[in-house]
Amino acid sequence: MESWSSSKIAAAYYYKYMYKEPCMTSPQTGEAWMNEVLNGHHIRSVNAFRMHSHVFLKLCGELESRHGLKSSDRMTVVEKVGIFVYTLALGVSNRDVSERFQRSGETISRAFHEVLEAITARSKGFHGLAREMIKPKDPTFQETPAKIMNDNRYMPYFKVFRYFFAFYIL
Fold first, then answer.
1. Which listed residue, 25, 53, 123, 164, has the most CB atoms within 10 A of its CB?
2. Rounded CA gap, 10 and 1, in Å?
3. 123: which DSSP letter?
4. Is the pTM of this model over 0.85?
5. What residues have CB less than 8 Å from 45, skipping those under 6 apart?
6. What angle do CA 36, 89, 130 make, to 5 degrees?
């Protein structure tokens, strides 16, 4: 009787903590879906990524060649960027992206943050895409644009900022 209950406990433990039933079982992988969308009708790419496939592929090339984004053993740069852009373009959750790309939530999150790092370059030795592409016309911020200056919704914040900035420089 005692061995029966201990084997029952062992079986319960095994099924609860060790046995992992596959969840992502769709035959269409994320890479296959990406190839289908990028090589299919041009509207599919616009619907999924809010850009044409040639623009998407150029973005992938830029992030890989100039901003340090690398393919891994199991995921290409194109799929990583696809995960990132799909998430932002459609505003979908990690679970939805996991289902679309047939990857775990952890893998989706890791890929998303790798692309985000390539764009922002907060901790790498690369210049991020954002720093290269988004540059203020006046890097010293000496002039406030007329659109802000003449709008009462924004100007109070810039008055404080300009005072702080002038104080900080002196």
1. 53
2. 14
3. S
4. no
5. 37, 38, 51, 52, 53, 56
6. 110
Residue type, 157: Y
- d(CA 147, CA 67) in angstroms, rounded, equals 34
Q: How far apart are CA 46 and CA 65, in angstroms?
A: 24
pLDDT one-digit tens code per residue, 38-51: 999 999 999 999 99
Task: Report the 10 Å Cβ neighbour count for 44.
Answer: 14
User: In 3D, which of 21, 30, 27 has the Cα closest to residue 102?
Assistant: 30
CB atoms within 10 A of CB 30: 26
Residue 135 confidence (pLDDT): 74
Q: Where are the domains of the chain?
A: 30-133, 137-170
- Band (1; pLDDT cuts 50, 70, 90): very low
Task: Specify whether the CB–CB gap between 112 and 78 falls below 8 A.
Answer: no
Residues 67-98: tens digit of each pLDDT: 889 999 999 999 999 999 999 999 999 999 99
